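User: I'm new to structure prediction. If I give you an amino acid sequence, what do you actually give back? Let's try with this one:
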Amino acid sequence: MSQPKTPSYGGQAVLEGVMFAGQKVNVTAVRRKNSELAYLEVPREDIGWVQALKKIPLLRGIVAILESSVKGTTHLNFSADIFAEEEGDSKASAKEPGFLEKFGLVIGVAVVGILSFLAGKLLFTLVPMFVEYFLFGKLFSNFIIHNLLEGVLKIALLLLYIYLIGLTPPVKRLFQYHGAEHKVISAYEAGVEMTVPNIQQHSRLHYRCGSSFMVLTVIIGVIIYSFPIFEYHSIIERMIQRIALIPVVIGVSYEVLKFTNSVRDIPLLRYLGYPGLWLQKLTTKEPEDSMVEVSLASFNRMMELDKELSVEPARPSFAS
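Assistant: Good question. You get back a string of structure tokens that encode the predicted 3D arrangement of the chain. For your 320 residues, that looks like this:
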């Protein structure tokens, strides 16, 4: 008799805490200055047409990324509010918001999350393209070489950006919580007893991480841009193509990420996921025991609520 497959859970680091996504609830645990934990528990409300789109290859990647952006913004806001409150900067009203105010807040967070993702993706797509054009545009005419140089510039800018922000103490701590989140997921998937010492023995790198997705979009983008059908003859045509192909690059990259995760235990194919793991050496740091405690508390609370709601095994999602 075959053993049941271990459910795949995802999560995200927030300010002084970690969020984990279950099938029926998303839970964030944040460490206050007095060492107590504050929790945000948000039931997952699956919309029928959204769930239908998430079953369609290529489209499901776009839906998953946008959904993650909205979800992530909500939990980041919670951790930021806790931080502001403890700094004495909270200006929240003591009055309980009404239905319309709550509805407006939910819609606002969703819009901000989606717009932030789209703006970042657009900026990261176009800036390297223009830089490559101004540096090398007149040196040769082979568009495939231009695409490769554009990809190299994207990787360089991405690495430089992550390295520089990682030098700041707040972001370094965020990256440590990112590492704690990965360690908890890895320990759970390994089936070990979920204690801090056991969890600390596991890697802070994970195949399913969103950092891996960032690298894949660059690599997949270069491949897609280099198809003869997408040869361009001006910088304007090149820009329009890049913008129009963003959904295609996201969709294909998501499918490749799922594939690399599914073959990570096959000796030769496991190397397909290594570029993303290398990037995680920048986006994650080794966590302190106290950070792993917060991550484990968030995970345990999520598992507890999922069990109470009698959920089925969770669907795969990004590790972060």
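You can read the tokens as a compact description of the fold. Here is one thing that stands out. Residues 99-136 form the longest helix (38 residues).
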